[in-house]
Amino acid sequence: MDVWLQLHHGQGTVEAALSAAACAALAVRRRLPLPVFLLSLPAALFSSVVVVPLAALYTLAERSRDRRLLTVCATASAVASALPWPLSDYATDDRFWTFVDFVYLLATAAAPVFLGQLVQVRRDVAARLAEVEEAREHERRLHAQSVLARERAQLAREMHDVVSHQVSLIAVRAGALQVGARDAGTREAARTIRRLSVTTLDELRHMVTLLRASGVRTGELTPQPTLADLRQLIDTSGIEVTLEGELPPGIGAPVQRAVYRTVQEALTNVRKHAPGATATVRLWHGGDGLGVTVTNTAPTRAVLELPGSRLGLIGLGERAENLAGSFEAGPTPDGGYRAHLRLPATAD
């Protein structure tokens, strides 16, 4: 249309050719916005094209982030459109109206520049919102993985503290029945129970290891035994245990659970690794600390080969660390074993 208007108003061949070249260059304005705009300036100077400069300015503003360049290009477009051609006519032309045309054309050129910048900002905001949504989705996935890991760690701890405790007790009792029974059928049944218990313990150990592989340290998620259940734990342990001392009233539930689990794990290890041994559970408090110490004597009978992974001791250490305390375990000079849990008196 621009080319047709030039021919219709009696423009020469050169002006029409420049207009045609500028119009054809719009086809590549997105790849070469600045060269296309520069090509539109001669057409704006020598003829009266309208669409080409505005389209070239819009594309340049939509692609470029250089505000100074856009200002210069808009001014150049207004000058090229307002300047009389040929220049020899400028001396006789009304300079006031030339200035008015320049101001009007500059305002006209500013419109596609502002529109292009607006489109660019809108595109940037949309991209930023997409990045924010992607980051939020990533955070949601990380949170879900963290929750799953905590649940797996909690499940692993519960399996070891509760299920392994009961199964190991079954294995020990079955071993004792196997040794003491006089009837051959009873001994065979006890042997089968013990073998299945050992297999179950081994499978539990592998399962706990797998669950702990993706677990993290966390607080308790389900209700746990307290010191009120400690006597029952000792009475059902199947070994000779002496309970000494006491803890002050009013201590927090996490501390009670940590003490209970320490005694439970220590007595379980005594049954598994020190048959015939006796144990002493000493509750103590004083100064700025409190805790429990479980000590057992050396075994008096042959040790039954039960699987162990030391994950229980690791779990006790994690519990103590979560409460700003410490846990130590190791053999004693007389061949026994000692587990010592110390927690600050202010732990909750």
Structural write-up:
The chain has 348 residues and is α+β, with helices and mostly antiparallel strands. Among the domains are: 2-93, no CATH class; 224-348, Histidine kinase-like ATPase, C-terminal domain (Heat Shock Protein 90). It is 62% helix and 10% strand. The chain has helices spanning 2-8, 13-25, 33-46, 51-63, 67-82, 95-180, 184-212, 230-235, 253-273, 311-322, and strands spanning 240-244, 278-286, 289-296, 326-331, 337-344. It has a five-stranded mixed beta sheet with strand order 1-2-3-5-4. Helix 1 (2-8) packs antiparallel against helix 2 and helix 6 (95-180) packs antiparallel against helix 7 (184-212). The two termini are 83 Å apart. Residues 216-223 have low confidence and may be disordered.
Q: Brief description of this entry?
A:
It is built from ten helices and five strands. The chain is α+β, with helices and mostly antiparallel strands.
Keywords, please?
single chain, 348 residues, alpha+beta, Heat Shock Protein 90, 5-stranded mixed β-sheet, 10 helices
Question: Regarding CATH, which class of one domain?
Answer: Alpha Beta
Radius of gyration: 43 Å
Major sheet strand order = 1-2-3-5-4
Q: Count of DSSP helices?
A: 10
Instruction: Measure the end-to-end span.
Output: 83 Å
Q: Average pLDDT value?
A: 79
- Unreliable residue stretches: 216-223
Series of H and E elements: HHHHHHHHEHEEHEE
- According to CATH, the fold-level topology of one domain is Heat Shock Protein 90
Helix content: 55-70%
Percent strand = 5-15%
Q: Work out the number of β strands.
A: 5
> So what's the overall shape?
rod-shaped
CATH architecture of one domain: 2-Layer Sandwich
